[in-house]
Write a structure and sequence with these properties.
With 652 residues, the protein is an alpha+beta fold. The protein has 4 domains: 237 residues, no CATH class; 133 residues, no CATH class; 89 residues, no CATH class; 154 residues, no CATH class. Helices cover 34% and strands 22% of the residues. A hairpin with a 7-residue loop joins strand 19 and strand 20. The longest helix is centred in the last third of the chain and has 55 residues. The two termini are 44 Å apart.
Length: 652
């Protein structure tokens, strides 16, 4: 029995509640969305077979590394009232999956960010089935060999918690090295060792370090040493164990220090090491795991990356929708969390965010956030053991006084918006930015705020002015604008420099966007160039006879014409590519990198004219092959563009 989930696995809980690891995608295009997979699983007995049984709870009792589900914070008050801080038996797990505690409602089908409420009939069915299976013992004369994978990040449970900032219901996976990436060791090695039952461990961590090949539950049989070991068992020759196989649990990886980043939000999450290796999710939806010893996963709304501690990494995130995001960072040793830090409530839009970390969490740089992707950034410094909440900057009022224009004046910094005045009140509307409005106020009359250009009237605040008589305003005497000619020369010079730099910055952003559009227009320009070249060649060879029997003439039939027909089919797609997002364009580029060379090869092997005796093998000419290849490539491109666009719209 190799990696068999005899008593289930916590991954079954994650799959039914959030569709964890159930989605299928290729080239960043979803083939089966996790929401659809979760909906199918709700009424599939197979999904319920993987749920932890009572025997599983018995085997991990009092083991802090294997909590199936634990709760903390006011957001999970109902669950804590029903089960305590952690679920400890099958009855509590069943009640939680069915939401008998009243802590949640059934979510929309496509909302995998919220936990599902499962099928009560299949819960009862799975519990009865496990009661029968878990009590099985081998018959006399039957020898059972249980083999468990060990040393791969495996879901041990789910941490449901409430952050310090407020009563949000957040969650994140709890990982352990005690498994093969899917099945924890306690489930794979259910039966105790006896004369007829043997236990063995496959050290996946050592195998990865020695071979640079990462194996897990799905491909355990790709390990040569395991294949040899199974052959030895069949031949009853197990006197010596192959490499990576042991009859006792490998020592805890105390020297293995890991960093784990949990992202709560619709942003992408990537880590890049000093060698340029990448692990995580890219903007175009593609996923890579090139950093040695790293892993990437998604759990409902949570994306997470685990990497070995000790190298220098750059973490980067790209926004996919508006809202806020939180980033949890954990430092662990031997599977035990030793340090943590959280950055929470950060606003996002077309966000670009990044930080670097060279060792433990204490070496993390401030998180730099460009909320709108316009170059305007702010930073948040993480603190070890604390949650740092983003707080928008508060405008600081400024005031100064002087004289001019026949009386004394005061300069007042107010939020950008303000104002109308009446005899009894000043009406102020607030805004998100501030600017200094300089007002000249005579000392002999009541002080009032002069009208500024209103931005957006949202709130009215009555301000009572102290006035000896009726508070009418004579702007010709009491509130004339402080003219620019009265500003000091340095203030003028500073303003010129600031606005010049600001304009250059805006132009730089526009230039970057223009570069992107120019890049995406290249396929259309190439297609038009090929089409134009074919018509030029036809004119030059036929009408003018200038190019007759030249290289242009010789390549017309063999190359120019077939490429022309391919370009004709591709041109509409190329025009569309000029207007899609950069992520969609990058996905198409990956398709083109293999589709275009294959098309060229296909077109090249087809004869350019009647092949005579070989006509049966090639029933059409090269021009026809070019039309076929161009049509197929255009169709594939359109399907890819539509799917990526729909995926982006669905994410938003």
């Amino acid at each position: 029995m190799v990696g068999v989930p005899q008593t289930g696995a916590p991954l079954g809980v994650g799959a039914l509640l959030f569709g964890q690891d159930q989605g299928i995608s290729s080239w960043g295009v979803p083939i089966l969305h996790s929401s659809v997979a979760r909906e199918l699983a709700q009424n599939s007995p197979m999904a319920y077979h993987l749920l932890p049984s009572q025997s599983y709870f018995d085997s991990v009792m009092n083991d802090p590394a294997h909590p199936v589900a634990r709760f903390a914070g006011d957001g999970y008050a109902k669950e804590i009232s029903a089960y305590g801080s952690a679920i400890g038996n099958l009855t509590e797990l069943s009640d939680f999956l069915l939401a008998h505690d009243g802590g949640r409602e059934k979510p929309a089908v496509n909302n995998v960010n919220s936990a599902e409420i499962v099928n009560p009939t299949l819960i009862s069915y799975a519990n009865d089935k496990h009661t029968t299976l878990d009590s099985w013992v081998p018959s006399a004369g039957i020898e059972v060999s249980q083999i468990a994978g060990w040393g791969a990040d495996t879901l041990a449970g789910i941490d449901f918690y409430t952050p310090p900032a407020g009563p949000q219901r957040l969650y994140r996976p709890i990982q352990t090295e005690d498994g093969d990436g899917t099945v924890p060791v306690p489930s794979a090695l259910l039966m105790s060792t006896s004369t007829s039952v043997k236990r063995y461990w496959v050290n996946l961590d050592s195998y990865r370090k020695d071979t640079s090949i990462k194996r897990s539950h799905k491909d355990l049989f790709e390990i040569p040493a395991l294949e040899d070991f199974i052959k030895n068992i069949i031949k009853s020759s197990t006197s010596s164990l192959p490499a990576y196989i042991s009859a006792s649990q490998p020592p805890v990886l105390a020297e293995n220090k890991n960093l784990t980043f949990y992202l709560h939000s619709p942003l992408t999450l990537q880590l890049t090491d000093s060698l340029g290796n990448i692990t995580g999710l890219a903007e175009d939806g593609s996923m890579t795991q090139n950093i040695p010893g790293s892993s990437y996963g998604e759990f409902g709304e949570v994306k997470y990356v685990t990497v070995p501690q000790g190298s220098t990494y750059t973490l980067s995130m790209h926004g996919q929708a508006s809202g806020t995001f939180s980033l949890d960072m954990q430092e662990s040793s031997g599977g035990v969390v030793t340090n943590s830090s959280t950055i929470a409530s950060v606003p996002q839009g077309s966000t670009l965010a990044s930080l670097t970390i060279s060792d433990g969490i204490n070496t993390a740089s401030p998180l730099t956030v460009d909320k709108n992707g316009d170059g305007n950034t702010f930073t948040i410094t993480p603190k070890v053991g604390e949650t740092v909440n983003y707080e928008p900057p508060t405008p600081v009022p400024e005031s100064r006084s002087g004289s001019g224009g026949g009386g004394s004046y005061s300069t007042i910094a107010v939020p950008t918006t303000v104002a109308t005045t009446t005899e009894q009140e000043v009406v102020v509307s607030t805004a998100t930015t501030s600017q200094t409005i300089e007002l000249q106020v005579a000392t002999s009359t009541p002080v009032a705020v002069a009208p500024a250009k209103p931005v957006q009237a949202k709130k009215k605040v009555a301000l009572t002015a102290v006035q000896p008589k009726k508070a009418s305003i004579d702007t010709s005497q009491t509130a004339s604008v402080y003219e620019a000619s009265q500003q000091p020369v340095l203030n003028k010079l500073g303003g010129v420099v600031y606005y010049s730099l600001h304009r250059l910055w805006i132009e730089d952003i526009r230039t970057q966007k223009m570069k992107t559009k120019i890049t995406q227009s290249i396929p259309a320009l190439l297609a038009l160039l090929i089409i134009g070249f074919r018509y030029f060649s036809q004119w030059c060879i036929g009408a003018e006879q200038i190019c007759f029997r030249t290289l242009l003439d010789r390549m017309y039939l063999y190359i120019t014409n077939p490429v022309f027909y391919f370009a004709i089919f591709f041109l509409p797609v190329a025009i569309i590519l000029a207007f899609v997002s950069r992520g969609v364009f990058n996905s198409w580029l990956r398709l083109a990198l293999w589709a275009i060379p294959l098309s060229i090869l296909y077109i090249a092997i087809i004869p350019d004219s009647n092949p005579g005796a070989y006509m049966d093998f090639f029933p059409f000419y090269r021009d026809d092959a070019a039309r076929v290849a161009g049509g197929i490539f255009a169709a594939l491109s359109l399907v890819l563009i539509i799917c990526r666009a729909l995926r982006s719209a669905h994410t938003k």
